[in-house]
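I hope you will forgive my troubling you with a question about protein structure. I should value your view on which stretches of the chain appear to form regular backbone elements. Here, with my thanks, is the record as I have it:
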Amino acid sequence: MLEAGLWGLGAASALVVGALIGLAGGVPRRTVALAMAFGAGALISALAFDLTEEAFAHGGTLPVAGGLAAGALVFFAGDQLLHRRGAARRGRRMHKAAEGNGPAIVLGALLDGIPESVVLGSTLLAGAGVGVPFLAAVFISNVPEALSAASDLRREGHQPTWIIGLWVGVALVSGLAAALGYALLGGMGAGAVPLIQAFAAGAILTMLADTMIPEAFSEGGDLTGLATVFGFAAAFLLSTVS
């Protein structure tokens, strides 16, 4: 449980790194967007080969189909609830920095980070250790996420110490989610791992299609597709040597 929490905290620490870079300034919006596209491609690769393929190999068709559908529906429902409570859609946030959207951005990042952290913890259930490609993909995607949000929060008048403290809090919650995910799901036994992997894959893939990729395209333009493919290829190559 402690190891799972530390892995989750390690991946989420990229949020603090991204926030520090964002507060330093000088990073063009398009560069942030293309980095986000690269991270999205890396996550797609990790979901396909580290989660869905592994889930199918050990669980078969039914757990994969059920897990993907359940994960997608749960994320969709949570995302809709968040929007109805006043959070702007993250895909539009780069154009809404002046509308007090910063706290909603952080809440959205937390909503995305929980399933990522849970699956990091669940990868330890099978006894094979943490999935390095998935860990790397989460870390890469978190940096531009927090970079953009920290810049927006600074424009809204928040102090740098407050912003960093906020992202440290998000990272700590993500680490806690990984630890609790391992503890709660561990009681289900190793046979539940394929369902858990497919559930996380469905949730995160829904997030990518609904928020992260549209946001990247809004500022990255025509290069977004290339950056996404490069991220996919990098994560896939990492999975072949890990």
About this structure: Confidence is low (pLDDT under 50) at residues 87-100.
